[in-house]
Structures
1.
Amino acid sequence: MDTRVPLLAALLLFSALPSLAVPPADASESPWWETYSRDADRNGISDLLAWKLAQGDRFFAPDEARVFVRYDHRPDDGDVAQLEAAGATVTFRAQFIDLLGTTMPRALVPIVGEWPGVVMLDDIGKGEPQMNEAVPAMGVDLAWELGFDGAGITVAIVDTGVDGLHAGLDDQDDNPLTDDPKILVYYNAYDDQEYDGRLSEDSGTHGTHVAGITAGTGDGDTAPDGSRYVGVAPQANLANVLVCCSGDIEDIIRGIEWTMANQDRFGIRVMTSSLGEQQVEFHIDNDGRSAWSQAVDAAVESGLVVTLSAGNEFGAATVAGCNTIDSPGDARLPITVAALDKDLSLAVYSSRGYTSDGRVKPDVATIGSNIMAPNKGTVTGYTSKSGTSMATPLMAGIVALTLEANPDLTPAEVKETIVAGYSIEREILDDSDLYTNDCSLLETRPDNEYGYGQADPRTFVEVAGQVDPLLQVAWTIPPRYETVNGTDVEVKPEIHNASWLYGGADSSGSPVASGVEVRFGASGWYPATDTSPQGDWTYWKIRVPPEVAKGNQTLAVRLVAAPDRMSPIDSASVVLLDERAPASKQEDSPGLPLMTGLAALAVIALRRRD
């Protein structure tokens, strides 16, 4: 099928609507390096790299620098040869993002920055860890009651490693006489070698704890009341991807790329990492464009659901706690996880948004405080740790349960339909802690503290089983552009109170019992009106209810064919205005539902093609 046809149809339909904001003909997203928040002076050398170079031998070996050379193209043999001829050593060649890892003489840095095709020289930096009761507190046991335990799902633990000798991680059934290893493979990024999972090891202690939260069987020492410290998805398998922390971020990206390349071999559906960029004297701007952040975005695009920690920069204490999401938690496509205490209030240490480029983060919250999980080197021991590091693997386990309920879910459907659509809404003002710090200016859902809210495992697995990708629904909300410094930049559409919204749906010929339903931020589901001549919801409309919360909101729409069958959710980020539109714009144009519905169907056609 030629995708140009529906795309052209969509553009023609949008241009035919005089009342809608149509993107300028020359509008396009600027290359990332032109707006990179870590290069404030726009000289092609990141501010952090420049600062480290000015510190003498504090961060690098004498006369050397560890540098990511980032290109506007996938670097080839010629790029490698050019660097080596100039005196640099190429230590890493990325497969999925446009960069080379190098060690180069410091004097070479400004020279390489002037080469054609080189768009940024970036500090490689280092990664570091983001440092029985959580399961019932989060409602994980309610998902277990439905029969889900993670079976058939492999989770990659990208961390310090996993101790394969611990009783809670050595096998699936806690029976030493059976051959059922939990850890399917062990990859060591330092030597770029793959080993049998039975040889799995941890270079520290962090990764073993993380792995047990996700998928530990609970074998070994018990709690004082006799209960076991069972992970969220105890029958999930693991891939140990050891990347931290004696090297640098190059090793971490190497491990991420290994996971992407080998996901089909080992059935890896989820990648979780509780590592963050090592901080220096100042907080590093995070706009989702660092090499590490782009690598995890690429991992999602490859088909992996990725969970990342938000960071532990004491978001609740002061205003400075806002805008503290760490890299790579600032990436656009993964699920970034905040931490809750066991009473389900937001942990004071949990980092908060915005990102440096104004996006809302994190995406969801789970318990991260005082989590008991396997203690590396003890065989049967368990220990308590706190942090978004602990909340993140808990979320990875919930994702494993969700994918077991519906293995056909895509990463986008997990994030946009399940997490965004069915997390339990939480508000920062619900917390009684005196150190509450509200980092959300206009946002109500998602916000910069909880994201879309508290993860709800039972609801996630129930809804996952109902999602049918054959059913599709789409908004027709045209983009809005503003001119900033001579460049047309896409911004959130503004929607007046009580104005009409339109869209389309495709039921693939199935009867539709309930129809299209819309949620405005954290509101309940509102029924839309079917405007299609056939009565099959091909075109639909809804008027913005006057009572819904205003400000920055996420609109969600779903097509419900039956009580146990619905489409993936289509979301739109907008600004709901408190004032009503002029009287002329409040009226429903007779031809508008048809035209906008056709545009939505063109979008659906493209989605099915992809």
2.
Amino acid sequence: MATLSAHPHPFLPAVNRPPTHILKPLRVSSISAAKSETSAPDKDEEEETWSLTVSDRRREKGLVHAEREEVNRKIASRKAISVILRREATKAFIETKRGPNNSKKLLPRTVLEALHERITALRWESALKVFELLREQLWYKPNPAIYIKLIVMLGKCKQPEKARELFQAMSDEGCVMNLEAYTALLSAYSRSGLFDKAFYLLEEMKDIPMCHPDVQTYSILIKSCLQVFAFDKVRVLLSDMASRGIRPNTVTYNTLIDAYGKAKMFQEMEMTLVEMLRGKDCEPDVWTMNSTIRAFGSSGQIETMEKCYERFQSAGIQPNIKTFNILLDSYGKTGNYEKMSAVMEYMQKYHYSWTIVTYNVVIDAFGRAGDLNRWNICLG
């Protein structure tokens, strides 16, 4: 079982950390002691408390749940209709203006809002059409920022060739080809698994003044390599970074820790975490904590998971809802239902709202145990 105890200083003191609401640490090992403090209720009080039948309670819960679902559906429906109407209105307005005399006289705000909306929604085909319309306007001037946003969008949509065409058009229009533009194209290549082109572009960037790859460039390429388990390429990139004096940042380390954990490469994960802690400019955050405890929890190393969780809390890192979902899932899959209940009580005490993931994890755990009665109590 891998542990983190080998390093003499597991966490550096927090530096310039903004004040946060300090939560009382969740001590999962003291459940039984805490529960034994409550005294047994009086028999009359117990009868009065449980005067409603089980079926009545469930019926009331079902009605409340149904009412909430109906309200949520109505809200979601209104929002969806609003978005659709706004999109259709924008589309109709632009189409009506695309006449022989009007196509070059659109207001900048109209076109730019339509373009921004499509980029945000990753509607790449529609975005490129609006961009063509933008370039037809009399007031149009090449804008590198717009080109870069489009190239990033095309990368996310797995359209590397379209991204390359825009990159070339950007150059043809006289835009300054800066580091951000090259990184956007490199990201488009790596997201689609075109690593030969991505690495070739990386080498090309090293010879271009003001476009030398930085930690963000390397981090993007490292993440893409890790997603296809190309750990050999990752080692080459890390070595290249070191030779150029580029230190990984928190995002780089978190990406590595998460990937090593999912691949059950605990030794590499721990070495990366220790290296991160030794650095002066990098501090672990909640993403570091979640990746670490997920790695140990998903492999059944519950004790190590709990120790890591407590150490991160001692370092001043506060959990989020994803943290609790990981704990619940880990306990549920190993049959630690009492500890699951302790986590849920903690979430309720400090007002952490359940997500769909939380409900699915709890339902799956108690359903697997055949204890749906406990699930009904949790809903109450």
3.
Amino acid sequence: MPLPPTAPQPGPDTGPRNAEEVLVAPVALAGSGSSRTVSEPLDDAAGWSKVIAFGTDTYYTSPCQRVRIANPVEGHYGGWTITFAEDALGVPDWITTFDRNTPAEVVNAFTTTLVEGLDNNFRDRLQGGRHFTPSSPAALLSERNWQPAGHQPGAHYQLSPDGHAAYRIRLGRLHEFDELMEPELSTWRLSGGLDPLTAPTWRAYFSTSTPQHLITASAMALADHAPVSRFAPSIPDLHLPLVTIHPAPGPQQPRAAAALARSTRAPRNPDAASPVVPAQAAYSTPPRRQR
């Protein structure tokens, strides 16, 4: 089984509580963020049960018993795994895995949309529903100027305009049980990092039967230009030359100022850097499983 692409980046849940908050863009390079971005809406979801095992691992179950959401800290992928089984005691119909470095906003978009639509079997998201979107995730990303990229046989890639986020569709027939056992074989993948195609910092995997509107929710969160909230020390060092950091509302603190200063430095090896405009020029005013 392949090792995770990088060591987990420290987030606000593992660092000092008084670390300064900043606004970071793009989200693909902002780091994983706080697990509370995902867990707090689940804690508030009506009828969902929650169990904490071994003092660290968190498990949620839907009222209908068909959905399981797991956040085991020390596992291989270490992030969030979501499964759905029409038969609550049966083999999952689909599985989605967000590794430990996936931005929390990408996970939250998926889980929030899942919770909101589960009661009526996603009727509002199906054809004729008020939230139905006929376009595929690939089409919606294309509308946002994501371009075809990569030449790996058996896969189609789209790359974000800044070159640091990617969407992959695996081509050809794949046995569904292979996807359930090994996320790397999943039909769809979102990823981000300095090289999101071949060496991403984080990956999110979606098996073939994952509802399209749930994948779309995560894809749109990834494509959103709005800055996201992070604690300054949690931003991956390798990403600092390529992100824009603004102080969060309120008085700026020394640690946030240090992150701002570091983000403006040029990469140590410019020839190896991705061909995008670094730091402040890269982003001005936003257009507003683990197993």
4.
Amino acid sequence: MTPHSDLSKLFSDLSVSRQKYRLGQRQVATIVIGALIVIIAIWFNKDHAPGPANKPVSAKSDDTLAGVTPVVVAPVRHASFDINLLAIGTVTPLNAVEVYGRVDGQITSIDFKEGQMVKAGDLLAKIDPRLFEVQLTLATGQLARDQALLDNAQADLARYRTLLTQDSISRQQVDTQEALVRQYKAVTQADQGGIDNAKLQLSHTKIIAPISGRVGLRQIDSGNMVRASGSKGIVVITQLQPIAVVFTAPEDALPQVMKLLGSARIPVNAYDRSQLQNLGKGFLLAADNKIDPATGTIKLKAEFSNADGALFANQFVNVKMPIETLPKAMLVPTSAIQRGSVGTFVYVVKDNQTVVVTPVKIGPSQGEITVINSGVATGSMVVVDGADRLREGAKIKAIVRDTPIAAASHSARTGAKARSQGLDPLIWSRDLSSRPAT
């Protein structure tokens, strides 16, 4: 073997050894990474596994495991039920006036405070009156001069008539003097009209409130010129007491509304955005004479006394107006109504604590209360929560609902009573519902 071949073999052995070394390093790295992944997974599962304190509560209670399903039930009530028209209305003043100056001149004073309540006839501003005082003086002097001429002409006429009886003057002179007297009378009448006009113009230098209401922000300051033909007013007065609310009703409700409008005063209540606070009680005032074909609605207007000022112009309110009252209606919570192949039904609780599927015919609903026309009797207990876990004949554990449930069967007096107790006026509690309907 030559030295050259030995050297080649040595390099070949070194290359093979280096490749084996690299392969070994890769295998070791793979094993280490895999071990780290396993350790992390074990640690994560250990820390996040649900313990006795944080395990999810089983949907099945002991009663359920025993074949008994806990449900919430409520009785079928017998009470009056108001079918209400619910709408969004806009508070609209019955009268709103923009006050302008009626004569040309300079504003010398502003006599109101922005936002204050004023009465009809209150002074709002003054215009410099001196020009109009001078005009009144001139008109008065003109009348005095012409009145003197008239007096003189009348005296001459009296003398001429005496001379005519004595045949001392011609009839023509008397006729001429009579015409002159009539002329001076007409002149004095015109002068009196000039005086009246000057007085009227002078009175317009005091700008007074034409209606009672709340003044807005002033639109002109003292010292500025105003003109009778100007387009900029001084201030806007809005009548707030009484005030109106304009809202719409569907055309289907129009026959009932018109029937009530012609026979009685229909109460209308206005609520705030949350429908919890009653802002005022009013009465339906009028209905528009046409239906909007684009929306199929008709505009209605109600009037509110607004004694406390709770309603403000252009304010949006929720309107509630009863259009029909069912005096003896069977009422159930809307959550009790189920729908299936048999139509609408409820689960009625029997004496042996089982439920039976009972088809019902439902009537109108309001909020969370529905009228039952037939199918159940007053006092029957119906399932209002948990019905999705029931079937015909299922055994249940009944929990009677004692908390107030939403209803729309309150009369106005009952709603007022609830509000005085700090309750939602739409809440129907067992205590309130048991009282006679009004």
